[in-house]
Amino acid sequence: MDQKLKNFIYSQNSLNTFKSCPLKFKYKYIDNINWKFDSIESRDYYEGLKSGSDFHLLCERYFKNIPIGENISEEFKLWIEKIKDVIDIDDSKIYLPEYEVRIKIGENYLTAKYDLVIIDDNSIEIWDWKTESQNSSYKNIENRMQTIVYMYLAKEVIQKIYNLDIATENISMKYFRLKIDNSPITLKYTNEKHIRSKSIIENFINNISSLDFDGYIDKNKNHCKYCEFNKLCNNQKINYDIIDFDESEEEDD
User: What pLDDT is stored for residue 250 in this prediction?
Assistant: First the structure.
C-alpha cells in the first residue's frame, strides 16, 4: 500500500475517481495535484461549482430554521420554493442538513456528507440537491457510486447512531435535480442491494490498497475527454462542457 493511503478516508468521490481512471486517482489523492486553469471556461466552471456550494449552504440554513435572508438570486428563490413544495416540515421528524458520517473499513475509513437526512420512527430519507443541468437515466443514477455509498452508510451508521431498527426497504434516496425537475427521483433500498453495495465498496478499497501506484502511468483512454487531467496526460484542451468532475465535489468535496 502507498504510505499516503494509510488511514486514508475514502468517499464516494475518491472511489468514483478510481473507478473512472486509477491514474486520475493517483494524480488527485497521492500526488495531490490540483489542476485548475485561468481560462474563461475554467473560471465559469468553478464559479458554477461555487454557486452550487452556496445553494447547499442556503438549504442548510433553511432546515436549521435559520433565516436565509432576502438578498438571494431569483434562481435560488425558485429552487427553495421547489424544495418547500415537496418537503413538509414535520416536528415529529429529525432533519439533518449537511450531515456527515463515517465507518471504519479495515485500516481505512469511508465517509459521506449528506445534503439532508430526514428520520422518523420507521424510515430514513436521504436527499441530494443537484444544481447542474445534467440529465441521467434512472439506472445510471441507481448505479452511481454516490447512491451506493450513501445508502450503505445510512443502513450501517445512521440508524445505529439514533438507536433505530429500520427495515432496509424503508431507506430511500431522493435526487432532486432543481434545474430540470419539479419533484425528486426516488430510489428504494433492499437487503440485496445492501449486500451488493458492501461488496462493491470493499472490493474498490481492496483494489486501491493493493495497487502499486509508484510510477503508475496506465490511463483509461475512454475517460480522457471527460477528465480535468486531459491536458496533463494528453496535452489536449479541456472541454468544460463535458468534464467529469464528480458532482459530489460540492459535498465532500
Answer: 35
CATH topology assigned to domain 7-250: Lambda Exonuclease; Chain A (3.90.320)
Sequence-distant contacts of 61-67: CB under 8 A, at least 24 apart: 62/97, 63/95, 63/97, 63/116, 64/97
pLDDT at site 12: 96
Threshold 0.70, pTM exceeds: yes
Burial 76-110 (b: 16+ CB within 10 A, else e): beebbebbeeebeeeeeeebbbbbebeeeeeebeb
* Residues recorded for the chain: 253
The CB-based long-range contact list for 225-232 (8 Å cut-off, 24+ gap) reads: 226/20, 227/20, 227/21, 227/24, 228/35, 228/36, 229/23, 229/24, 229/27, 229/33, 229/35, 231/35, 231/37, 232/27, 232/33, 232/35
- Region class of 215: left (phi > 0), else alpha (psi between -120 and 50), else beta: left
Residue 36: the pLDDT is 60
107: left (phi over 0), alpha (psi -120 to 50) or beta: alpha
Please spell the DSSP secondary structure of 159-205, one letter per residue: HHHTT----GGGEEEEEEETTT-SS-EEEE--HHHHHHHHHHHHHHH
Compute mean pLDDT per 10 residues along the chain, 253 residues long, and list them.
80 95 92 66 50 87 90 92 96 97 93 97 96 86 96 97 96 96 96 98 94 86 82 75 45 37
